[in-house]
From TrEMBL:
This is Membrane transporter. It comes from Methylobacterium gnaphalii. It is a multi-pass membrane protein. It comes from the Bacteria. PANTHER family: INNER MEMBRANE METABOLITE TRANSPORT PROTEIN YHJE, SHIKIMATE TRANSPORTER. It is found in: Cell membrane. GO terms for cellular component: plasma membrane. Pfam families: MFS_1 (PF07690), Sugar_tr (PF00083). PROSITE patterns: MFS, SUGAR_TRANSPORT_1. Residues 8-417 form the Major facilitator superfamily (MFS) profile domain. The chain crosses the membrane at residues 21-39, 51-70, 82-103, 109-134, 146-169, 181-200, 236-259, 271-289, 301-320, 326-344, 365-385, 391-413. The keyword Nucleotide-binding does not apply.
Length: 420
């Protein structure tokens, strides 16, 4: 049965949008309520650091999910693996929304929270790689990067949905009601969204590239072993290339939200509105970068974005640190536009580093290892650095990440096919 390109791209986009929504509602909750609800009463700064530590746990679990789902994605197929990853992520998200607080049951509350964060990480670890392959391996010649933006657009849409829901709850509920039960509603809503994602994905067929590879030879027995022994350089460089966009995104969202509502004293609703406006710049830059990457190549687009990111680090003090609304909003818009310019081409660039037979594993492991380095500790490290050396030191942290990614992209081969 022939599946239309529109349906394929929709399946790639919808699934990642749901999974990003699940991931971001936790990120937003970590900045707003997780600390006081799941950890013992103490200094608010300590509770925030503990909440950000639980945020990091899922990133540590993501490479496990990448290896697990990549194994079956490269041996059994993309479709079944994508369905399984979506179900695990959705179950873990809903379970977090049902957890009792520390005040109710004590230390089992944060322990269970960490357990289901691991579940979220495992589910998410298998999602992005499969969704990217679904789009890229169905792309017509010369349009892989443009098709590869489908899963990338799930990021701003999932983020926007998560923040708008939290924003609506903050407008409609008292602070007491929000802290008591309102924060749970975005987690419980994931059940309905997962049902929608399953409906779209269960009607898919395998990608032509995977079907052709399977027809030529038996699948790799252990794809992860093949990646480690035969494609370690591509894995290393792809991982380091993704460090800066990860760090940039979570500094402009999770850390900035915590800093803005804490140190700068903005109401939660105001800063959430800032971030919802800024995320539109991320959504704008992703397709622009995808189109540019098909025309000029992956490396030139990535390198230009990383140069901008390194310079953007210098703006933390004068813009975010100023506390002035216009400058803070402009800071968020600039940062997320730069992130999208790097993030957009990655939907094609990372899968193209690996042959079809191990592409699911390679792309997934690379993407999620980068999450550990670039994202998992970024809010925690930024919170600590800002307290130690001021907000400007967070900019130096970002600039360092940009230099690492810039060197990695310089050493990567151009993956845009010269002829297709």
């Amino acid at each position: 049965m022939q599946i239309s390109s529109t349906r394929i791209l929709l399946a790639s986009f919808v699934g990642t949008a749901i999974e990003f929504y699940d991931f971001y509602i936790y990120a937003t909750a970590a900045a707003l309520v997780i600390g006081p609800i799941f950890f013992p009463p103490s200094d608010p700064a300590a509770q925030t650091l503990q909440a950000f530590a639980t945020f990091a746990i899922a990133f540590l679990a993501r490479p496990v999910g990448a290896a697990l789902f990549g194994h079956f994605g490269d041996r059994v197929g993309r479709k079944a693996t994508l369905v399984a990853s979506l179900m695990i992520m959705g179950f873990s998200t809903v379970a977090i929304g049902c957890l009792p607080s520390y005040a109710s049951i004590g230390w089992p509350a944060p322990a269970l929270l960490c357990l289901f964060r691991v579940g979220q990480g495992i589910g998410f670890g298998g999602e992005w790689g499969g969704a990217a392959l679904l789009a890229v391996e169905n792309a017509p010649p010369g349009r892989r990067a443009l098709y590869g933006i489908a899963p990338q657009l799930g990021a701003p849409v999932g983020f926007l949905a998560a923040n708008l829901l939290f924003l609506g709850l903050n407008f409609s509920l008292t602070p007491e009601a929000f802290a008591s039960w309102g924060w749970r509603l975005p987690f419980l809503a994931s059940a309905a969204l997962v049902g929608l994602g399953l409906y779209v994905r269960l009607k898919l067929t395998e990608t032509p590239a995977f079907a052709e590879a399977l027809a030529k030879a038996e699948p790799e027995r252990v794809p992860l072993a093949t990646i480690v022994t035969g494609h370690w350089r591509a894995t290393l460089l792809g991982t380091l290339a993704m460090v800066a966009p990860y760090a940039l995104f979570y500094l402009c969202t999770v850390f900035a939200l915590s800093w803005g509502t804490g140190r700068l004293g903005y109401p939660k609703t105001t800063f959430l509105l800032f971030e919802c406006a800024a995320i539109l710049f991320l959504a704008l830059s992703i397709p622009l970068a995808g189109a540019a990457a098909d025309r000029f190549g992956r490396r030139p687009v990535l390198l230009s974005g990383l140069l901008v990111t390194a310079g953007f680090g210098a703006l933390f003090g004068p813009m975010l640190g100023s506390g002035e609304g216009a400058l803070v909003l402009a800071f968020l818009c600039l940062g997320l536009f730069a992130m999208g310019w790097i993030f957009g081409p990655m939907g094609a660039a990372l899968p193209e580093l690996f042959p079809v037979r191990v592409r699911y594993t390679g792309a997934s492991v690379t993407y999620n290892l980068a999450g550990i380095i670039g994202a998992s500790m970024a809010p925690f490290a930024a919170q600590w650095l800002a307290g130690w050396g001021g907000i400007g030191s967070v900019g130096l942290y970002l600039a360092g990440a940009a230099v690492i990614s810039f060197v990695a992209v310089l050493l990567m081969a151009e993956t845009r096919p010269r002829r297709e």
